[in-house]
Write a structure and sequence with these properties.
The complex is a heterodimer of chains A (250) and B (344).
Chain A (H helix, E strand, L loop, with lengths): L7 H35 L2 E12 L2 E2 L6 E3 L2 E19 L2 E5 L4 E5 L7 E7 L6 E6 L3 H4 L15 E2 L4 E11 L8 E7 L9 E6 L5 E7 L1 H4 L9 E2 L4 H10 L3 E3 L1
Parallel strand pairs in A: 1-13, 11-14
Antiparallel strand pairs in A: 1-2, 1-7, 3-4, 4-5, 4-6, 4-8, 4-10, 8-12, 9-10, 10-11, 13-15
Chain B lengths: L1 H16 L28 H11 L12 H4 L47 H4 L1 H5 L8 H10 L3 H9 L6 H13 L7 H6 L7 H13 L14 E2 L15 H4 L8 E2 L21 H11 L18 H12 L4 H4 L8 H4 L6
Helix pairs in contact in B: 2-7, 2-8, 10-13
The chains are: A alpha+beta (250), B mainly alpha (344).
Chain lengths: 250, 344
Amino acid sequence: MLITKQNNTTASLLTTSQSKQKICCGIIYSFILFFNLEIASAQNNITRSIIFQPYFGNDTLHLNDTLYQNGIALQIEAFKFYITGIELLKNERVVYTEKNSFHLLDVSEIKSLTIPITTPAKVKFDKIIFNLGIDSLTNVSGVYGGDLDPTKGMYWTWQNGYINFKLEGKSKVCNTQKNEFQFHVGGYQFPYNTIKSIVLAMNNKEIMTIRTDIKKLIEETDLSKQNQVMSPGAEALFLSEKMKNIFSIQ
Amino acid sequence: MKKVFVLILIASFIILSFKSSNDYQFVVPVKWPKPFYDFSKNNLSNKKIELGRALFYEPLLSRNNTISCSSCHSQFTAFTHIDHSLSHGIDDRIGKRNSPALMNLAWHNSLMWDGAINHLDMQALAPISNPDEMDEKIEHVVMKLQASKMYPSLFLNAFNDSIITGEHLLKSISQFLVTLVSSNSKYDSVMRQESDFTIQEKNGYKLFKTNCAECHTEPLFTNLKFEINGLPIDTILNDKGRMNVTHIPKDSLKFKVPTLRNIQFSYPYMHDGRFKKLSEVLTHYTEGFQGGVTLSPKLQKKIILSSNERVDLIAFLFTLTDRSFLFNKDYSYPKNIFFPKKKE
């Protein structure tokens, strides 16, 4: 038999001793936490903010507003994307790496567009690097919580994998149901790996504002021909290449 | 100050090194390969396994609360479903494939007949969202469980958190699935030199090793690879197998080699359930190959079996039946959770 079995009496005895153990651990951990905090503040860390500001050309992007691209009206209804693997560099050397760096940004939730990072106050940097999308190792390593939780709606279930970004809207030129276009872009396997690394110049700032101009993607696509991308493949790869260019320094 | 800190650190290490009674020890059967599943990312505990077991039998996972995983994966048939060649889901909708038997999943490096799912933790999302199976959204499942009477406390006991998340839901289902280990058939006891094959079974084992073992490799009775075994394509289903995932033409009609453990009870057979009996399967392997299908190099040599040899081979396949698996109470419907006895 493979299953480890306990008879009921020992099982219940052990659970009481276990709960004592838990309390003990709890006390000890709160101590450790306390000391850690002390050490952290001694090192003089500061919290910086990376703010992604959504634009459509020169105007701030508001979801569901009527926008114009070459005189053709369109609306953006949803725009969500993963920013991961944030690093700061000085003279091409990494001086800061965010731990557990996975962030889901959603234009409909303003708060999600600001990423706070805690760095040593004195750190000097001249570049920021981050990824748009989820790396392949994370894609094949099972389930995660937080922003990576599959309940966030950024996950394909029939052939599993993360959706790196979602852009949805309407335009008269789309010959589809309700004139909708839907870009769900992901895919982590060669040759259709859609994660993109983005490098921007950034000087020692506490508040780093990153312009996120979705017009730069729309300009590059012909919505009358390309309006439904919902699985990994060549079209997704094309969109991810274009999407890379929407980020710039304010 | 520093000393106190070090002391506390040491003390906490000592306490942590006592494994708590809730831990579940996953035992790898003797001479089996190392499991693929990474237990360090999802530490097994009895409470999480219990929770996963409840979820496996929980119809709330489907849109109209009628279908549970066990609807298509029932224990007595080695966790496949038996009356249907193709899976039978919500509102009597018929799926596109036969539900595979579930066992020894901790060794699987991909899931589904075509390997479309790359990790066991993510597997449950597929049937939950499939419109022909459970037709539900994981977000909504979480809401339903959170609103239920029993689940918040089960999640609290298992994860120290009564707020239910997709992560915890999927991890507990995985925990239950990896405990479904079948390694106690007559074949296994013969290998452990605790009993003997009959002459018939022994001869069957020999035939098996020459003709089948390259794909249905011991001890799992699958090499877990994608192979073409020569089935002519069903022109209505038009299922290209592995090629659906890789888009590479040479993967057309490749399917994941299924285990042959408990094969006596897991009929009907093949990805589309086209055969009801093992004798039909053997007829396929000896004379069923059709032109036009590129066979696996492992099947290039024609398999010839006399009628006696067919009987022997089937006798051997029956030694793979593991009653301690099929009737293991730890896998069955958890009555005690769904209908707890009131304490007097």
